[in-house]
Each structure stands twice: as structure tokens, then as C-alpha cells.
């Protein structure tokens, strides 16, 4: 019955004219139930851009370092960055909060910082659609300073999704470990889980998947290489399934941490119905977005290029895959919500 429902939802989503290729992989924790679907030549071993699912990998490293006692989420960012980097980064209603930001603000997206990727008339997403481009961390900080923050840190339990929060966490990881982010991912995640097809771009010879903007195929190696901690990862559905299971079942860090960091906040209206917690998205299934037909919640992350990796605790099911379309970031969310609601009984 579950197989038939999954087949039906996948067939419906791939009828969308914007979907040129897709892959879906569904399993329970024990692997007793496993289902994979491919479209347009993709399968569970086809590399694709993880985009913002990479944030789960960055979150993993932060939580491992926290567990090792090498950092605290209450640390202020002044511990890790020079004053000239932070100065004027966050000025809200004439008051500067730059030096008061904490790791928790970054991880929970409660800093109030703007998102250079989506915001502004010349945002990074628009520029990347038209041409490949490279930028470094300092340039990202400079661009962020040119935009206005949305609220003071921790203001009224608000959250605003911004890549710069995780770009900063990536730099903090490198500072604490005295290693590159690629090396830390390898040590903390890739090697323990034996992930053979998951990586951050390092060399010109590394394979770079293409992605679609409407009907156009885009190849953007420099942009992807620049995204790193916030969205530069590449993986396959098979590898990503191994990772998302490990993330939620305690193979990488003590899963009790989720009880310590369980508060979530609703993101900006443009990202409805997504809420955000400790480095991961939460999507309630019992509200208006599902016409009150679902129950429980999905937890995990999606990516702007159409990737997704979510866990449905109420059914003990994991959903990973990709619809490879950057023009509508809501597509993977809709797919996973439809799957979750169809499998409610």
C-alpha cells in the first residue's frame, strides 16, 4: 500500500513541466521498507547538489564540537571573529548588535541578519542564474553589511533564514579545529559513515552536477565552491539516506541534544509553512498548508536547487532526493508534504 501511494505522488510531481529529472528514496530506520523512484535518467547513485541540505552537515560538526566541549552555543561570535569583520554587520534601528550575536543565533536563524542569496535587487541567486561567479567569506560579510537586518537578535522569538548564519558557523568550525571545513566533514561525517559520493568541491577535477532554472541547464562550479558551509555539498540519494538516518538516530552525536535544543520559530512569510530549530527545518503537517489533513511533523532540510532530506518520526520514515529545479524552491517541500500526508494511515 505504501509503495502504491509513493508511486502515485511521485508520478504527480514529475508531471510538472518544470521537473526535467528527479529521484526519490524512501526508507524506514531499519531498512525493512525501502522504495526508490527515478525520472529523467536519475537514480539513487546519481550525484546532485545538496544546496542547503549542506547546513545539516555543518550543524552536525557544531553539535559534535559542542559535545567535545570545544565550543558552546552561548559563545558570542566575538570569540571567533575580529572586530573589523563584525563591525556594522548588524545595526537595527540605530543600535548595533554585531558583537552580541551568539552561535545559537546563527544555528537557530535568530540573528535577524539578511540573506544575500535571496535579498536585494542584485542578490546572489539572480546573479548566479545569469553567470557563474566566485565569492569569499569576506565578500559575503561585506554584502551582508549593505542590507538591513530584519530584527534584533532573539526578538519576539522570530527567525529569518539567511545563508550568512551558516557561512559564519563554517568559519567557526575551521577556527576551533584548525582545519578546513572539507577536512572536518571528512573526519566527523564522511569517514565514520563511509560516504563515498559526498563531498565539497575542492579541485577543478571534482564532478559538478548541473541544475535547472526553468528549462535552462546551469553549470555553476565557482558559485557552488563559494557556498561551502551553507550550501556547497554534493551527494547522492543513497549517501544522503545513510547520513539523514545517522543524524537522527545518534550515530554522529548524542540524539538527546534534540531535547535540549527543541524550540523552533516560524520563518519569514515567504517560507511558509517552514519553522526553524537547531540547524534544521520543521514542517507541521496538521495546519492550513495541508488543509489539516496531516499529523505530526517533518524534520530535516531542503535545498534551493530542489534537494530534500526529511524524517517523519510518526511513521519512522526518511525521505531523500532531488527534483533539480531552482526556479521554485517550494517544489521539494510540496513533494515531501504530499508523501507524508498520503502515508498518514
Automatic annotation (TrEMBL):
Residues 8-321 form the Beta-lactamase-related domain. Pfam families: Beta-lactamase (PF00144). This is Beta-lactamase family protein. It comes from Sporosarcina quadrami.
